[in-house]
Amino acid sequence: MQILITGAAGFIGQLLAKELLNDPSYTVTLTDINPPPIPDGVTYPQNARSVTTDLLHGGALSSVVTPSLDAVYAFHGIMSSGSEANFDLGMSVNVDATRNLLEALRHTCPGVRVIYSSSQAVYGQPLPAIVNDTITPTPQSSYGAEKLICETLINEYTRRGFITGFTLRFPTISVRPGLPTAAASSFLSGMIREPLAGKECVIPVEDREFRSWLCSPRTLLWNLVHTLSLPGDVLPSHIRQVNVPGICVSVQEMMDALERVAGREKLALLREEEDPALRPMLESWPTRFDNQQAVSLGFRRDESFERAVRDYLVDR
């Protein structure tokens, strides 16, 4: 199976590439605006190629979009805080680049499976206590609006038969390895990752009951690969979005998990400091979902946040 991963230099792209390149049945093209590395230690590095491509330049797509493609994972984009800080850049990278990609796929490999990474940021208040897949998204951020625009494109291109699209609305992924990102939710990994590395992390909300909807990298990875096997007609042709399962965790529960795994002394590296500019965006996101549809399609959810922390210690 021939797979294209856009935004492949990022964390999720590298995570997925590593998984696929340990299986001889996949040939993977990694592309990003910066040279995406082939992950170290994979079993079949010869099954990968790395191509530097700017998706905003439609002509450059011919180097990565070929008639033999079986599936595309679209992970490229500017994250939440970055999109809010620079409207023009967010619209360009998150929307225009996605439209360019879909047009290239439509004309080169019609019907190809496209797995698009969306976000719970498509939602905004007011919301019911528990959100399900039928709730109408009303984003309260540029990032959420850009993701919703692209979801509509995936629906329309699938309805017309141009692609076979699946939109996965990710929970916040925690615990992410690596450095802090421009995501508003970055602290939800940092408050575990940084203390484990002996570094301080600022939590931008002074409310330990503040809750977030989270998913571990391991569980996300399993669900991403699972989407390759879903029948194309398992969803209506014009409604292709699925809320990926997560778990609801408070700041206090995350701190408790850190203490149980690494010791109470690590809590001294957490500093709570309210960020009034960030708080409205964080509070606009839902914190509880009814994932009945995703579970019926075979998607998995995490066992607990403590398990996610312990998995991070093994996987980092």
TrEMBL record:
Record has Nuclease as a keyword: no
Organism: Aspergillus heteromorphus CBS 117.55
Taxonomic superkingdom: Eukaryota
CDD domains: Gne_like_SDR_e
Pfam family, one: Epimerase
GO terms, molecular function: oxidoreductase activity
Name listed for the protein in its UniProt record: NAD(P)-binding protein
This protein's record includes keyword NADP: yes
Boundaries of every NAD-dependent epimerase/dehydratase domain copy: 3-214
